[in-house]
Design a protein that fits this description.
about 210 residues, mainly alpha, Fumarase C, Chain B, domain 1, 2 domains, two-stranded antiparallel sheet, about 60% helix, elongated
């Protein structure tokens, strides 16, 4: 896939030619939203499964779509996928490559869905994935503080209040204060994961899909 390909015509059907280069540069988000490739592909595979289960597309088309999307995932992760600014974003880059791989069946993937849906799904999945990563890091940090707290259960140090040395405490006790703080952070991250565990699909561009 290269920038020599025709511009995305989803929004440009009323124009006789493509946009100026500066407009393409301003409008494109592929330079940063390419990071959402895995979530975009996961969301599209799930959407294709829904379309097949409800009889909107055939099982054969769904198989082609899933296989094509998994091929694209491998291409991106292997560094063989060529992103195009003319296709604006990760959604259109993936969709265009899917059409190259499987033909007309790729066009049926977008049934009852808009790019607005995809943005909401991709961001939610990405943030959820990052929260899982942060949660694992916090668990490791808490474990390290617990280990130090046990090692220094009897190591005396001054406690402070109002920036003044106050009662004697132990370094282990001081470490446990951080265990409590980071445990609260972990609880907040887990709560965020639970709150995000809901699909935003269905709103389409604004207030539902016209597909019936």
């Amino acid at each position: 896939m290269s920038d020599k390909k025709a511009s995305n015509q989803m929004w440009g059907g009323r124009f006789a030619s493509g946009p100026a280069a500066i407009m393409e540069a301003i409008n494109a988000s592929i330079s940063f939203d390419r990071k959402l490739y895995a979530q975009d592909i996961r969301g599209s595979i799930a959407h294709s499964e829904m379309l097949a289960e409800t009889g909107i597309i055939s099982a054969a088309d769904q198989d082609k779509i899933a296989h094509g999307l998994n091929t694209i995932l491998k291409e991106i992760e292997a560094g063989r996928f060529e992103f195009s600014t003319r296709l604006e974003d990760i959604h259109m880059n993936v969709e265009a490559r899917l059409a190259d791989l499987i033909g007309p069946a790729a066009g049926r993937l977008h049934t009852a869905r808009s790019r607005n849906d995809q943005v909401a799904v991709d961001l939610r999945l990405w943030v959820k994935d990052e929260c899982f990563r942060v949660a694992e890091a916090l668990k490791g940090l808490i474990a390290a503080f617990l280990e130090r707290a046990e090692e220094h259960a009897a190591t005396v140090m001054p406690g402070f209040t109002h920036m003044q040395a106050a009662q004697p405490v132990t370094f282990g006790h001081h470490c446990m204060a951080y265990v409590e703080m980071f445990s609260r952070d972990l609880s907040r991250v887990r709560d965020a994961i639970e709150r995000m565990d809901e699909s935003p699909l269905g709103a389409a561009a604004l207030a539902g899909t016209s597909f019936a």
